[in-house]
Amino acid sequence: MLSKAPPAATAATAMYNASAKDTNFALTHSRSIGSVSIRRRYNVFLCNSSSSSSRKVSPLLAVATGEQPSGVASLREAEKEKKSLGNRLRLGSLTEDGLSYKEKFVIRCYEVGINKTATIETIANLLQEVGGNHAQGVGFSTDGFATTTTMRKLHLIWVTARMHIEVYRYPAWSDVIEIETWVQGEGKVGTRRDWILKDYANGEVIGRATSKWVMMNEDTRRLQKVSDDVREEYLVFCPRTLRLAFPEENNNSLKKIPKLEDPAEYSRLGLVPRRSDLDMNKHVNNVTYIGWALESIPPEIIDTHELQAITLDYRRECQRDDIVDSLTSREPLGNAAGVEFKEINGYVSPKKDEQDLSRFMHLLRSAGSGLEINRCRTEWRKKPAKR
């Protein structure tokens, strides 16, 4: 307790006062992004007195030092205050109708790759972030599973079955993007989450994405149909009419991915999950699969092209002790023209402006058992001229 260590307490208080002063200035200082002035304010109240009994301690300081805050029933209230700070500083909120969520992000230097623009992994991570923030914003769980009350009672979670991302222009370091997301029902077995990415400076759409999620029993790891009770809990937060990020007929997000058979043209064998690849649920993060799939792309493509679209079918969970092989082959022209794989949802001949696209099929499999972990398809366009 602070009363048992006066010198340390005094130092901690002085440091906190200085930090609070600087934080208050920084957060109340208005800065402009594009043409909109964004203001966030968080007032820290800390009153010092020569008497420790009369000193008021802020909830945040109580969390840091373990001291019981004055006028607060328990540390639970302090923790709630701490979370609300993150919500207030986050540049995101529900839209006016409450049926979608928008959030702005500044691209950081560590999110930029060799092309001096955000990587596809950065884009995918931001999609996950805004999806999670949306789920928390409407009152779903904060444990990483975005579960409803009924789902938690029945030990049910959402898992990703499919992800499709298209990027028309990659943002650069310090660019500000705005991402909008919403959820809809997807038949009896899952839900669909879509995203629209815009350049916040001019409103230009720079990317779109869609995903399919299915329900799984957390204990048995078996898929389960979405019950009416669960559906009623989340449908109240969904658009009343069907809204799609990809409304075009026969769009690429619908195309099935045939299995890539051996021998593959390119491979990268023996990939091992790192500790940093694990998410808060101790499974390999969905974004890690993207990096693994791209590990076996030939260097000449990486040097001259940039990723335009990626589709991933998640087949099996990957655990921290699994060893993964990444296989890649160029997609035969017949695939894209609807000749060899007519059942693949209406492939059509590539348009003239698509002739320069390079397409690849990918397979992630367990090195030990040979079982499929992920199927992937990518499209690459030639790099634009340097800025």
Automatic annotation (TrEMBL):
Q: Please state what class of enzyme this protein is.
A: hydrolase
**GO MF terms, alphabetically ordered:** acyl carrier activity; fatty acyl-[ACP] hydrolase activity
UniProt keyword annotations, A-Z: Chloroplast, Fatty acid biosynthesis, Fatty acid metabolism, Hydrolase, Lipid biosynthesis, Lipid metabolism, Plastid, Transit peptide
Gene Ontology terms: cellular component:
chloroplast
List, for all copies, the residue spans of the domain called Acyl-ACP thioesterase N-terminal hotdog: 98-234
Mind telling me which SUPFAM superfamilies this protein's record contains?
Thioesterase/thiol ester dehydrase-isomerase
Where does the record place the Acyl-ACP thioesterase-like C-terminal domain?
Answer: 262-382
| InterPro entries xref list | Acyl-ACP_TE_C, Acyl-ACP_thioesterase_NHD, FATA/B, HotDog_dom_sf
The Enzyme Commission number assigned here is 3.1.2.-
Membership in a protein family: Belongs to the acyl-ACP thioesterase family.
Function, please? Plays an essential role in chain termination during de novo fatty acid synthesis.
Q: What is this protein called?
A: Acyl-[acyl-carrier-protein] hydrolase
Organism taxonomic ancestry = Eukaryota, Viridiplantae, Streptophyta, Embryophyta, Tracheophyta
